[in-house]
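name: query_chain
kind: protein
chains: 1
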Amino acid sequence: MTEKIADGIWRIGVPLPENPLRELNSYFIPGGDRDLLIDTGFCREECREALMAGIRDAGGRPEKIDVLLTHLHSDHSGLAAEAASDDGRIFISGEDMKRMEGDFRDESTRLRRVQFLEAGFPEMILDQTQKVNPAVRYRLEKLDDRFVPVQEGDRIQAGNCELEWVSVPGHTPGNMMLWEKKRGIMFTGDHILFDISPNITSWIGVEDSLGDYLESLRKAGDYPVRLAFPGHRGTGNYGRRIEELLIHHRRRLEEVLRILNENPGLTVYELAGRMRWRIRAASWEEFPAAQKWFAVGECMAHTDYLEKRGYLRRHMEAGVFRLFPLADSLSDAETGEKRREVSWSKEIVS
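structure:
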């Protein structure tokens, strides 16, 4: 579906088959010297057909399209090389661009595999995830010389919009939002989602992905946003959603500590199996392999956060890290208004 959501801005719904996210919100801004496309969908036929039809419906000029990528994930970047015109540019943060280049090397895959094996992820199931993981199956085939690294504060103009890049690492190490100050519009990508909570995983070479994400959330709250356009599903109250997500992750951290105090010595894989997840599976054993991979990555980010702040320690045993709590719960200084409750209009899920 293609719809005009603001003066000069179109939303193109790009289906994500066999994926719980269901659809990507791609945004198209025509006009001026170049048309701009924000995020693209997987590199697969269903996404390709919907994206190209949406560009046509919005009056796009295929020969004059530049692509802006909020981050490296395949559901946002998979069709970037096809959507951009031959003389176009594909903008993405320098950090995520560097990591995309690394994803084409065997060493990056090897390090990620070791990380999950050390977290206790069964090798046979890990092999299954690589066969079915859409992030691998439907990604860009390669980067070319149209890819241009950007940094916070850079600006780009299209139609009646001047967009400014805002650095918000966490969901990916180089994650970005796009700020249109004149009308108070923020393209949030996957940094702020309103119907689901963004997946925050542990990244190779990043000490504390969750800590980065929480800091980025607080930074995002400094912008006087009137309209938020997220990467998936619907929108909502921007400031309130930031507070909800901060509370959500405090509760998740407390849940991790509670489980470890009741079961010291768990691996991250075992810990993830005892956490609450909103998914159509009766038990951890019935989780789809790809969803286990996402859950363990998110659990890992929470244990990294707690270890960095002295709430738990890791001990290597037979090639696997086991986790031991060093505190019963988070300190008041860590949680801030720890017991504050909010009335949610939508349930926060993982």
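note: The chain has twelve helices and 14 strands.
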